[in-house]
Structures are given as C-alpha cells and as structure tokens.
Amino acid sequence: MATFSDAYLLVMAPVGILSSIIILPLLPTFSEVTKVVMLPILSIMCVLAEPIIRILFERYAFDSAASTLVSSLFVLYALGSPFYIVKELLVVVFYALGDGRRPFLVSFGAISLNAILDWLFVSRFYFGAQGLAISTSFTTALSALVLFHLLQKKLPGIADYAALLCPLVLLLFCCILSGFSTDFTFHKVQNLLAISSAGAVGMIVFFIPLMLLHLSGSQMVRDLSRILAKPIIQN
Question: For residues 8, 14, 16 and 20, what is the CA-based torsion angle, rounded to 10 degrees?
C-alpha cells in the first residue's frame, strides 16, 4: 500500500495544483493551460520518475527494488492524470447545466468497471500492483471520454472531433520528443558532468600539495592560474 500512496502522491501533486487553477467552465483556458503546462510536466516526470523517487524516498527499508516498483506505478498513474483533469472539468460543466445524474451514472459505472478490471488484472492476468494502476488510468480515461460524448450530445457543436485530431497528434509528438530529449540529456549530461568533475578534482588535488610544498614547477602553476583567472576577475 505504501508504494501505491507514494506513486499516487507524486502523480497528483502537479495534477492537484493545476486542477485547482484550471477547473473552470472555460474550455479554451483549460486546453491552453493543459497544452503548455500539464503535458510537458507529465512527460518529463515519467522519464525521470525513477531518479526522482530515489531522491525523495529511497532510504532505510525503501531500496532500489521499491524505487523501481513505485516508478512503474507512477508512470501508469500519470497516463491517466490528463483524463482526470478533463473529467473534473466536464463534471463541473454538467453541474453548471443542472445535470448531476449523468456524471453520477458515469462515475458509478467507472467504479464498477474499475473493480472488475482490478480483479481481472491481478487474479487472472497476474499483473500485480501495475494491474491496479492500469485499471485506474483506463477507467479514468474511459469515463472522461464518455462524459465528453454525452456533453457533445447535450450541446451539439461544442467541439469538432476532426478539428481536435490534429492538435492531439501534435501534442503526442511533442510529448514523445520531450521525453526522448529528457532521457538523452539526463544520461549523457550526467556522465559528462561526472567525468569532468572527477577530472577537475583529481587535477586540483594533485597540484595543491605541489604549491603548498613549493616543489619544482609549482610557481609555474601559480602563474598559469593567475593568467587564466585574470579575464574572469576583470569581467
């Protein structure tokens, strides 16, 4: 249960902050904020899930195996978090229209389907904890799509499916590109910084005793250091 709470806490942190700001009956505002803030945050956090979790939680009994498990749960929960915000927005719209019955029925159906999928994924397909996260994200996405379809029937012309397809494909491409660039930068820059830092520390540790003991060549090192540092000091 601790792994679920840790993963869900990390997913809901950005979702909770953003949803408290953008859950308004204004679809353009919602889509704009989600496009430029929510999706890139989630794509980056999915790629960096394991190192983030190691920094936040890995200590004492929380070992590397637990970090791997929580990071996998985090990614699976994160897949459903954009749909969670969409669902909350649509529920507010339905209540503003004086229709609370349809959101209630959709939520009841989603809870029932979630329970069935939990049983199937865990007891039949043996997905373990990941199966619970998959079922939660799937039912959240499905309920958001059902609510959107019902709203489209209630208010014809509120959204054009064809017009939404191109931006969605572009957003998906941007998320994938962001994820790959984040992963590449994290691993390559990490190694480059480690090598550069280790080499610099090794050189400094080598020359410090030479200068303290005034060995042959130490004066040349001092002069070279002053020459290199002079432009930096002047700037």
Answer: -170
